[in-house]
Amino acid sequence: MKKITLLLLAVVTITFVSCKKEDATSKIKTANLEKAKKQNKVNREDAPVIEFGELVHDFGEINEGDKVETTFTFKNTGKSELLITKIKGSCGCTVPSNWPRQPIMPGEEGSFTVKFNSKGKPNNQQKSVTLTTNTNKGREVVRIKAHVKPDPEQEKLRKERAEKNKKLRAERLAKQKAQAVNKPTIKK
């Protein structure tokens, strides 16, 4: 018990000693703030600009279960080097890869690959791929789309599953209604 009390007292003491209430804005020098604003404006004007060969790639009609891929090309049309720090697909079926990890200089081109797995994704599909960059926007987005023809076998399984779920919901609802009817009411 003594150990717990001492430990609690030590934590409380450290908390009060380490938390000083100082106004952080009072430490900012006005000259530095103006310099930062000017630098930020220059940075925005000289920022890299990414131009894509296409913003949306349409795979057209594919069969459910097909794995397809495309390559997006781009060019740095800005005034400074372009950095791509991360590329992420909107879901696990959309996987980007092979993007340049090194800076892309002004005027240079680059590319990356996007793979789409249509397993379990029937009908019209549209997915996005987000690039985290050092452009003014900070994020750039390209899209892929396809019409996935359903696999007849998978379609049959989906319909069976949907019917089973519909039946289970109806049974649950009937059970809830029966319980509500049989529930005793309290009169005041």
Total beta strand runs: 8
Largest sheet: 4 strands, antiparallel
What assembly state would you assign to the polypeptide chains in this entry? single chain
Helix content percent band = 25-40%
Q: Do you know the CATH topology of the domain at 50-149?
A: Immunoglobulin-like
Which structural category do the helix and sheet elements fall into?
alpha+beta
Basic shape:
flat
What is the CATH architecture descriptor of the domain at 50-149? Sandwich
Low-confidence segments: none
Q: What's the name of the CATH homologous superfamily of the domain at 50-149?
A: Immunoglobulins
| Relative strand content | 25-35%
Give the count of helical stretches. Answer: 3
Give the spatial strand order of the biggest sheet. 1-3-6-5
Order of helices and strands: HHEEEEEEEEH
Calculate the mean pLDDT score and round it: 86
Compute the CA-based radius of gyration. 29 Å
CATH first level of the domain at 50-149? Mainly Beta
Could you tell me how far the N terminus lies from the C terminus, measured between alpha carbons in angstroms?
A: 51 Å
Walk me through the structure.
This protein is of the alpha+beta class and 188 residues long. It has a domain at 50-149: Immunoglobulins (Immunoglobulin-like). It contains three helices and eight strands. The protein has helices spanning 2-18, 30-45, 152-182; strands at residues 50-52, 56-63, 67-76, 84-89, 94-97, 109-117, 123-133, 139-149. It has a four-stranded antiparallel beta sheet, with no helix packed on it. Strands 2-8-7-4 form a four-stranded mixed beta sheet, with no helix packed on it. A hairpin with a 5-residue loop joins strand 7 and strand 8. The radius of gyration is 29 Å and the shape is flat. It starts with a helix and ends in a 6-residue tail after the last helix. The model has no long low-confidence stretch (mean pLDDT 86).
